[in-house]
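Reminder to self: keep the SMILES exactly as supplied, no canonicalising. Ligand is A1CAB.
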Amino acid sequence: AEAVVVVDPGSPVVPAEVELFQALPEGAPPPDVVVLAVKPQVAPAALAGLPALVGPETIVISIMAGTMLAELAAFSGDAITVRAMPNTPAAVGKGVTALFANGLSDDARVSIEQLFARTGSVVWLEAENQFDAVTAVSGSGPAYVFRFIEALAAAGEAAGLPPELSEKLARATVVGAAALAEADPRSPRDLRAAVTSPGGTTQAGLEALDADPGLPALVRAAVRAAAGRSKELAEGR
Ligand SMILES: NC(=O)C1=CN([C@@H]2O[C@H](COP(=O)(O)OP(=O)(O)OC[C@H]3O[C@@H](n4cnc5c(N)ncnc54)[C@H](O)[C@@H]3O)[C@@H](O)[C@H]2O)C=CC1
Ligand SMILES: O=C(O)[C@@H]1CCC=N1
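Structure tokens returned for the bound complex:
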């Protein structure tokens, strides 16, 4: 891009080459791409000036959880409108972004894909209603993994390790397991089996992890709750 500007009345930290505006600039030429990243609840007030700013070639990409394309039309004037659900590992090029739009030209599709490919991998959804589940899995998912690191560190402490050592081990274990899951083509199930010696320590640990209600049931409940909240946001609650 020739220039990247951020519009935020708060005081976000932005790179030196990025210009920061307190409010949408008036009378500026139409931007190529606009990314909407405010909370859905403040969107109506924050984006009131957007239709006047964009042109028919502008691509407006919303990352707002639960805001439907039909609602975005009110904010995006003549622009091409796209919904995206990225996640925070994008900050280190390891994100995954789900995208959806109606009737995009091939050119627009390619430039949107290239934009998000800079932050990690990209998937196109088949239907907009997949966003609730996608948001619950990959949008919120990094927080579940960080929660797991916290829990593993706390459990190590409870088992007698000094806090710093336990956190170091827990963090490095999740980082290492994630890197292995990325590099090794085996399924997560097979990777798990490779750690689990019959009758050994891992098997004992996994049996406790899966005991009632068990990790799969807990994770299912978490995804159901997050997807439910995404639906509520879509209904303006
Ligand atoms: N945090 C995450 O992992 C993800 C968040 N999202 C979506 O991104 C959006 C923002 O979420 P967060 O970054 O977590 O929230 P946040 O609260 O960290 O960021 C919101 C930003 O909007 C700014 N803001 C408030 N009023 C504004 C206005 N009138 N004009 C311009 N900027 C304004 C705030 O100063 C703040 O910097 C939400 O819609 C969320 O659904 C989507 C994918 C992942
Ligand atoms: O918590 C949220 O609502 C946003 C959407 C996905 C991740 N964070």
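Points to follow up:
The CA atoms of residues 71 and 234 lie 9 Å apart.
DSSP finds ten helices and seven strands in the chain.
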